[in-house]
Amino acid sequence: MNSKETKWGFPKGRVASTLKYILSREFTNEDINTIAVVLMLHSMVEVSIEKLLFLMLNYEYPHYGKGMNPKETQKYKILNEKMEDELWKAIVGMNFHVKLSLIEPCLKVWYPGFEKTIKEINRVRNKIAHLNKLKSLKFKNKLIWSEEGIEEFFVTAQITTKEINKFCERIEERNEAIKDTLREMHLRRQTSS
Hints:
Layout lengths: L14 H9 L5 H29 L12 H24 L2 H15 L3 H16 L8 E2 L2 E2 L3 H46 L1
Antiparallel strand pairs: 1-2
C-alpha cells in the first residue's frame, strides 16, 4: 500500500467514483446524482411519517407537571423518557410499508390522495434501490432521469414532507391542550381530596 491508496488499494480521494465505475459503468454522474436525490427525498418523507406516527402513538400517557410532588414528577419524567425512547426504536425499526399503513387512515381523511403520492414516491425509491427497470422508470409520467422528472419528484416530496410536518404541528398543539387539561384534572383531584 502506498500513500496514494486506501487500506484496500483504492485511490485516495476517489474511492466512491472508483467503486461506481467498478459496480456499474452504465450510470452517468447525473444518474448517480438522481439516485442520491431520490434516496434523500424518500428519507425526508419517511422521517416526517415517523414523526407523525410518534405523535399519534404518544399522546395518552401519564403526564407530569404543575401541582405534582417532586418525586412523582421525577418518576413520571423518567418513565416517559424511557417509553418515548422505546417507541422511537419501534417506529424506526418498522419497514416503510408498515409505517405508511398505520398513518394511511389518517391521510385518507385529512389529505385524500396523499397516501397514493407517498406510495408512488416509495415505488420509485424501491425501483432504484433494487435496480429494477431503471431505464424506463417514471414518476408522474416523466422519466425520473429527465430534468422534468427529478424536478417533479423533488417538488412532490418537498410538498409531501411539508404537509405532513404541518399536520404534526397541529397534533402537537392538540397534545399540549390535552396535557394541560390532564394536568388541571389531576390538580383538581388533588385539591378535592
